[in-house]
Design a protein that fits this description.
Strand content: under 5%
Radius of gyration: 19 Å
Number of strands: 3
Number of helices: 6
Strand order of the largest sheet: 1-2-3
Helix content: 40-55%
Structural class: mainly alpha
Largest sheet: 3 strands, antiparallel
Length: about 160
């Protein structure tokens, strides 16, 4: 008998919390607008929603009227710092449209990648996740599109 055959049998994994896969509604709406070739409208929709979700997801207060720089310097906590670069890149796409009435500087793929990165953080996607015991976002189930990070374990 070989040495690797003598290992004790592995214990089966224990499911602590079952999570249904969902797509973040912000991503769904942005994809819908991009599908209609409305990049500027998608960006104008996404940035304020990200600000709102950052505040809810990380439990910080972002006062109305704060500039982007104030949000980064006064509101971002240590746990939010890894996503500051993505948030800043999103703003660099948003600002010319919002304040300069110019065409978007990014591509639809840039926008989606940034949003997926920002919503890849657990506090962000948890805003829209429904556990097996019920929804965690105030009583409504988000649409199921299957592209969120958390997934149910395969059923046997």
């Amino acid at each position: 008998m070989r040495w690797w055959d003598r290992r004790p049998p592995a214990t089966p994994p224990v499911v602590i919390e079952r999570i249904r896969p969902v797509e973040v509604p912000v991503l769904t709406e942005v994809k819908r607008r991009l599908g209609r070739e409305e990049l500027a409208q998608a960006v104008l929709y996404a940035y304020p929603k990200v600000v709102e979700d950052l505040a809810r997801g990380y439990g910080v207060e972002i006062p109305p009227g704060y500039s982007h720089e104030e949000i980064l310097t006064k509101c971002f906590t240590e746990t939010m710092v890894p996503w500051a670069g993505f948030f800043d890149r999103l703003y660099r796409i948003y600002a010319p449209i919002r304040y300069g009435e110019r065409a978007p500087t990014g591509t639809p793929e840039d926008l989606l990648e940034l949003l997926q990165s920002l919503y890849g953080a657990e506090p962000m996607w948890r805003l829209y996740v429904a556990s097996a015991t019920g929804p965690t976002n105030g009583g409504t189930l988000p649409p199921k599109n299957g592209s969120a990070s958390p997934t149910d374990p395969p059923e046997d």
